[in-house]
Amino acid sequence: MKHNQAGQEIIMLGDDAIGRGAIESGISMATSYPGTPATQILEYIARNFSGNVEWAVNEKVALETAIGASYAGKRAICSMKHVGLNVAADPLMTIAYLGTKGGLVLAVSDDPSAYSSQNEQDSRFYAKFAKIPCLEPCDSQEAKDMTIRAFELSEQMGLPVMLRTVTRICHAYSLVVTGEVREQNPLLLKKDPPNMIAVPSNVLRCHRNLQDKQERLMQWGAGSGLNKPFANGQKKGIIACGIGYVYAQEYGPEFAILKVSYYPVSETLIEEFVKELEEVWVLEEGEPFVEEIARRYSSRVKGKLSGEISRIGELGPDVMTESIPEWRESRKRDKHSKPLPPRPPSMCPGCPHSKFYEALKAAQPAFTAGDIGCYTLGANPPYQIVDTCLCMGAGISQAAGISKQGVKRVAAVIGDSTFLHSGIPALINAVYNKANILVLILDNSAVAMTGNQPTPITGITAKGVEGGKISLEEICKSCGVSSVEVTDPYDVEKTEAILKDKLDAEGVNVVISRRPCVFVTRKLAKMRRKSITHILPGKKAP
Ligand SMILES: Cc1ncc(C[n+]2csc(CCOP(=O)(O)OP(=O)(O)O)c2C)c(N)n1
Description:
Elements: E1 9-13, H1 14-24, E2 29-32, H2 39-48, E3 52-55, H3 59-71, E4 76-81, H4 82-98, E5 104-110, H5 124-130, E6 134-135, H6 140-157, E7 161-166, H7 167-170, E8 173-177, H8 193-196, H9 200-224, E9 228-230, E10 236-241, H10 244-248, E11 255-260, E12 262-263, H11 267-274, E13 279-283, H12 291-297, E14 301-302, H13 325-332, H14 352-363, E15 367-369, H15 394-403, E16 410-415, H16 416-432, E17 437-443, H17 472-478, E18 483-487, H18 492-503, E19 508-514, H19 518-529
Parallel strand pairs: 2-3, 2-4, 4-5, 5-7, 6-7, 10-11, 10-13, 13-14, 15-16, 16-17, 17-19, 18-19
Antiparallel strand pairs: 1-8, 6-12, 9-11
Helix pairs in contact: 1-2, 1-6, 3-4, 11-12, 14-18, 15-16
The protein binds thiamine diphosphate (TPP).
């Protein structure tokens, strides 16, 4: 194991620090579904921990698997990006009622400014909604330390604990001091029907238990030192949540700071902090979550609700400068403050999706419902052949809904990982309800968009060894589709002919476009050259 000694000082990525914190906490399981900016949490654990580390097919399955480990008395971490929590919301809302056994930490990474996402949602609302505690670090050291505290809190309260981060924590490097790795919990799987079976006869009691824990959560927060005022008679102040604390420090000693890293926040603490201040700023990523509380106790609050800070996009070190004259002037003099030119993503040279889109464009579908992955770039010039992108798995259902209105030659394009994530129920639904659509599965042997993680189609696990292998063709056939064809997108002519033919066919037809992402091919070639064979078939997972 790398990084296995306590007391080492390492410059670490925020995501790696969370992974390290989980390992130091004595986890027995880590689960995730890839999604920027959370992906590297599991990747770090896979590289540095010899136990169970799994890419799940989606976030719901990832959380449910981690809950299974917790039921066995073990500690588990489940990580995902913010929109993944929408997918995992169903088990989350009810496990909060039932309660956990071994510590369960849900590491959720938000993406303010939506650099790599379909929206900017603020996961703290989910923590509040589910009535579970949430910790929010401001740098890599805190990310590691708060992961450890989250496990302790989880076991103390019998609740999953959310660790909320944002892109600038996950993808920034800062110094971390490593600690001792705790022993794993012993296996302790005990049947507990009243608290493991969410049927109506149990639910109200479980809800009451959860409600009773709320007071204890407030008390824990008060004693934790995680929400802390730094005040010395100043007239102005900043309530700084998570990474907001790093930005708040830029503004110097004339600002008192209330550092917020734990939710639920004590309203008394906020009231005490704001009451004497002539001006109070609230720096928080996402929505005015804490600002709404602060406004109940002061009319001198500046932030997102009064428009001094934008509700759209992420914070930054400049967040307050426009509203503070002396800062505005000093920033004008800063010659390094030019914005970077935009660098929108584009398809890589040799990308199999681009060849496939040449054929699809020539086949002229009336409408192509899209999905999320590298292939969404087919919406951009020169292809402009993908007409929608909503959320993972939505394309097939959207296409079915359109075809049901009498539109002919409707296609849906979806990647192999997205198909396994949430495309299968949509395919079954389309067959069941007799839609007339052509489903195009672009199988590039990877979750390319998030950094080429392996999928069940390749049969390679998160650890890079052989796992079970799933056949796309067999899945589609078993869903009852009218036909399944496989094509190589580099053979544009043949692919175009198949697409033309299948666009006019009745029922739900599937064409699988199969060719590995160029980076997968390169990665394998490099490994073969170096004789590193562990990601190649032939090795069994430990
Ligand atoms: C609910 C949710 N989880 C995760 C993501 C992150 N994400 C975006 S696309 C994608 C999958 C891409 O893989 P695939 O469908 O195989 O297409 P490829 O990028 O390989 O072309 C993932 C995991 C997301 N956008 N939404």
